[in-house]
Every structure is written in C-alpha cells, then in structure tokens.
Amino acid sequence: MALVVQKYGGTSVGTVEKIRNVARRVAKTFDDGNDVVVIVSAMAGETNRLVALADEMCEFPSEREYDVLVSTGEQVTIALLSMCLQSMGYNAKSYLGSQIPVMTDSAHSRARIKSIDDKKVREDLKNGTIIIVAGFQGIDDDGNVTTLGRGGSDTSAVAVAAALKADVCEIYTDVDGVYTTDPRMVPEARKIEKISYEEMLEMASLGAKVLQIRSVEFAKKYNVVVHVRSTFNDKPGTLVMKEDQEMETVLVSGIAYNKDEAKISIFGVPDQPGIAAQIFSPLSEANITVDMIIQNVSQDGKTDMTFTVLKTDCKKALKIVEDVMGKIGASGVKSNENISKISIIGVGMRSHSGIAQTMFETLAKEGINIEMISTSEIKVSCIIDAKYTELAVRVLHEAFGLDKAAVEDEG
Amino acid sequence: MALVVQKYGGTSVGTVEKIRNVARRVAKTFDDGNDVVVIVSAMAGETNRLVALADEMCEFPSEREYDVLVSTGEQVTIALLSMCLQSMGYNAKSYLGSQIPVMTDSAHSRARIKSIDDKKVREDLKNGTIIIVAGFQGIDDDGNVTTLGRGGSDTSAVAVAAALKADVCEIYTDVDGVYTTDPRMVPEARKIEKISYEEMLEMASLGAKVLQIRSVEFAKKYNVVVHVRSTFNDKPGTLVMKEDQEMETVLVSGIAYNKDEAKISIFGVPDQPGIAAQIFSPLSEANITVDMIIQNVSQDGKTDMTFTVLKTDCKKALKIVEDVMGKIGASGVKSNENISKISIIGVGMRSHSGIAQTMFETLAKEGINIEMISTSEIKVSCIIDAKYTELAVRVLHEAFGLDKAAVEDEG
After folding, report:
1. Measured between beta carbons, which residues in chain B are less than 8 angstroms from residue A75?
2. Domain ACT, which positions (chains A, B) (predicted)?
C-alpha cells in the first residue's frame, strides 16, 4: 500500500462530467489499495471569470482581496469532487488551504508555502477517507487567505506530498508527459521517461509549460518523485526525480524554445567600471527581469551591450535605457522583438564535451545566425532570428538523436 | 458617531455596477462619521448557479460539501466590495465567517450561530477601517464551513450587530420597507413606520418575505433595532423594534396571505383519547410540518379532523393519512390544495376586543366562506377558498383602516 498524491489541473476538472472522470480515476487508485490525497485546481475558465470581475471592479485591485476572490475557484472544485466520490460510495472530505492549514508567507498572489500540518489529513487517511485539497491557496500567520500564483496548484501538490512523505506525486494534465521538445512543432518528439529536477527546471523556465517552476524546486528540495501524466489515458508519463547514472548517459534530454523575449542593444558604451550597474539598476528597480547579457570586447574604450527582457517589458525597458544613455554617454539604442531563444538541456553535458560545438555547427549548416549565446552547467541557449525557430528546433532535435526513430535504432 | 451595521442582499450586489452603488452608500455612511460594518450576500443568481452545479453532480450532495460550495458566493462579493471601497480611497477589509470567526453548530445548510468574536473587527474599526463580512456562513467547532440556510445573511447581519452592540442594523433590499400588505395586490398598501418583533415574526412566517424569520428572532432576543430599507433610494424604511405604546394603539398592523398550504380532512374518526397522536406522529416522523388543526364536535362518538400542510408535502401527507385511516377506523380522507390563508396581525389585539369579529363580518359581507380559523395573541388567521384571496385582502385592508387614504383622514 502506497500513499499517492494526485493533482488535477483546470482542464481535467473543467466540467461536471470531467470531474466525474477524475473521481473514477481517484476511486480506482483507492481501490487498488492506496491512500489517496487529491489536489485540484479551479474548473477551467473559472479563474479567468473571477479575474475579469476584479478587472471590471477597479484598475488595481488589492492583492489581499484578490486572493479572497480567486481562491473561491478551487473551493468549488473540492466540494464537487468530494460530493461525487461520496455519491459513488467512498468516504471523501474536502480541505481548504486554511483548514489543513497550508501556512504561507504574506506575499499575496505569489505566496510561498512555509509549512503544512499533516495531522488532520493523516487521521482522516487512517479512517479510509479520500482527501480532496484546494490547490493554489493557503493562509498566512494572521489568517489572511493567500494564493501561490498561477499554476500554484502544482506547488500545493508537491508540498502536500512532501509533508505527507508520499510515495509519489502524480500531476495529471492534458498532455501525457514531458517531451523532448514541443510535439506540435516536431512530430518526432518523444515522451521522456525520466528527467532530473535540474533539467526539468531548465525545461520549465525555457517555455515547456508542463509544471510550474516552483513546484519542481519544491520537489527537488524535498526529493519528491513527481509523475507527470495524462488525465485522459492510463499510459505512464514522465518521472521527474533525482538525477541518476542512467540520465547522465544521455547527452541532451530536450530542446526548448522561447519566443517571449526581446533584445535591446546599447552602442558606444564607455568601457569603464560601474557602467553595467548604471544600466541595470534602474531596470531592476522597475521590476524588469533581464535574462541574457552580453558585452562585446572593447574597442577604443567603447563597447556594445546587448541583453534580453520579456517582450511585455520591452517598451518600458527601452524608455529607461534611453534615459540612462544620455547620462553615460552611449551613442545609440536599438531593440528587436523578432528573436527566439533555443536551448539544449541535459545533465549529460557535465561529463561530455563538444555538445555546444554540435549545436553551433548544426545551426550554421542551416544558415542560422547565432546572435547571442549563454551557457550553464546543463544547458546551452542561443538567440536566433524568430523566423528560424521551428527549423532550429527540428534540426537540433535530430542532431542530438532525440527523434523516435533514432531511439528505436539504438534499441 | 454611531456604529452602523448594513446588510445588502443579492439583488443589491447583483452586478459590478450595483456593487459600486453599494460602495458609494457605505462610503457615505462612513463619511457621515459612523463606524460601518457591512454584511453582503452572494451576487444575485450566483447561489443558484452553484446549487445547479451540485445538482448536476449528484442527487443527494453531502451537506458538508454543499456548504463548502455555496459559501463561495458571498466570498466573491466581499472581495469585490472591499476592492471597490479601496479604489475609492477608503480602508476596507473583508472577513469570511471563519476569519471573524462566526461560530455555529454543525447543522450544515441550516446552522445556528452560537457566538461571534468581535475582537478583530473592533480593532479594525478603531483604525478607521470599513469591515465587509460574508453573510450566510460560519464555522463549527471542528473548523468545518457551515451555512445558515437561504436568507441567512439577514441573520448574519443581526447577529453581528448584536455582537458589536451596534446602534442599528440596516437591511437593504429591493423593497423600501414592510408594507401593511402586498402592494402588488393592494395599491393602497402603506409602508409601516415601526413594527414590533412579534408582529414582524407573524408577517414573515405568513408570507411577507422581507426578512428571514430567524433574523427577527435574533433581533428580538438581543434587542437589535432593524431598519428595513431600499438600496435604491434614501427614504426611511421600516423600523423593526421592541413593542412600544404607540404600536398598541394600532388595532391591526398588517394583512398577510399565504397560498402555500393545502388542507386535508379525515372523516368519521372515532372520538377517543390518543387518536390525534396516531394521526400526527407519523406525519411528524416524516418531517411534515402541520400548521392549523381543527377538530369538530363529536357526533355519535365520531368526529372530523382537518389540518393544513405545505402544498409540497400534501401528497406525502395524504399517503401517510390513508395508511393510518385503516388502523383507526376512519371513514374517509379528502384533500384540497385550492385554499389560501388570510391573517390579520397586530399587537393592538391584546388590548382591544372585537377584532376577530370585524374580520369575520367583513369576509361574510363579501360572501367569502371561512373554512378554518386559528388565533394567537396577536393574529387571527382564516382559511378561505383561494380564488377569494385578493378580494379578502383588499376588503380587510380597508376595514381595518390600513389604506393610505384612511391614514390621511386621521391625520
């Protein structure tokens, strides 16, 4: 007998009929002899409906009240799922974040979980009760309702699994696992059987939106095995877990792409100490996250600097940089929203050389110019012209042997 | 400076625009120098939407989970109203039933308030904060969400007013007070300026659905002055308060009617001890509420018995009575759903005689036959043929001088 934590996202519980489907899946897991704790999101569309109400009410809704509002979405789902299981003859009981309680800090709409009390849930499990927990929500020390931010139900699930020392945390979603790349772009993309936390973090932050980043950080911290799988079939999905030797033999686990960034270049920047701070401090103060930064070698005491920000921040960033330009005596600023970031990810890179080289050569062979490069221990990212995104992903996917055919050949 | 508790019902907060209107009214009360605590219902239609979800999910939803589900309605409203007040520059803070806390018993979907902690609210009021409380909801000793039943927000408001020893509890609704009778039926109906708790209880239970009965019981118990008034204008409404001498000078305060009952007659009942218990115990066990009961004088050791039940219970009651009939040796049973109950209500009856007489004569003059009569200290009710309902209400309204014209004459 195992303790299984299952999380169902908004599309999995989007209608009463879909909630019935989830209930059958939960019941089967229970009938198989497991203790079951279920975390659910709001029914698809519900959170958007609530956010629209807030937007209609006023321009800048208070974050405290915003959390009171949007947390009702999950509350509706836990009640309906519990009712359904009860009508099927099972003991089921719903829990709000405040009832467990899931204690968080007070950062409304992006709260972090501090602790989860497992006492009441354990007691109920002992009595053969299936536990249904509202994802995405908690309370702070003063009893205020908090929410964890969009996608926070994944984090709720992993945190509950960690608190209960569950054997596995199954994240049910509308895809059946983590793929070597976006299957809509590359039909040959394969489902990954096992992926390390580190790789998953890179995949997630680079645009493979299967799991919320913070849930992976949480899983890594508490060593929770996360099983990403489909609500709509019984096939095994992808295990996100601690790195093992088998993973290291794979050079590249996946190819990610991200079209959400824009590039800003500053020309003729005086190459002197403190100049970078003068440029990036005001951006940081304006809450603009800078991703990649590149500084050219200096010529005649002048250099060029290029960095990327989210497209949505580009105009704001440009304005700030233009203000700074005069002060530091730079000669010009240019932005380009027409870029794409392509990344290869794999823990195997740590012990294998020449992987970046293969990436550069593969792109060069297709005539794709690399505009920026950044690397970490387990990934290499290149900024290219956006129009080559699909081509780049496809050729890299093939070059690193990730295609279905390639694997079958190896087998 | 006074402490004012205001309650706004579902139609008053039915849209974002209407919530804005409520916010303006709340703000004005605050600007006038009052401390303000606001209790709100779910937006009109929202509770029905949630109930429909539960009905779609299963036939007999668990009451615990039902409460978790429907209590989200009020939660949405408190968040939106607080946001709106904040955007207008006021300090406002929402409270869930569980956050105050409003402690109730564990009778889900019809819970009774046991106590309300005023500590946090008082603290916030001291800091100039407007308090927005979710009506209809509370928690029990185990932290389960409970609800007070339909219309429970009235009771929440009166209970909060009692706990805070508020100067007045204003119940805002879509009518502008309590009328001498249904104005849709009698255009001459007048708004009542002041009415005693006892009269209001009779009015409410007889079909004048302005205030939930339990809220009036609560107000009576804790001597809370309730001001029933309109959300959509500034006219004073009706004060529901302790009986005073002025009220006693009025013979009849109002005329109520109720078409929700049906009449069941049993013929040839052996007139012997214990027979009533044999008839009414099984009805009570089946949760059927019997309202009026009449037993004719006995002839040849046999009697007839007639009683009224809710129309919705009539078929079930008839089946039970038919079962009993054989056992007690009665000769026949008949039901009639085509009846109406007309009542005259007034604390003045206590000290004035001849009021029932006037009622009987007035109905007789119009050829309206009285089928059953029941009386209490402050009311007389008659069952008549349903088709005479409107006529009976009109002539009684006139006979007891309740018409607008009559009052103007007196003035």
Report:
1. 68-69, 71-72, 75
2. 264-347
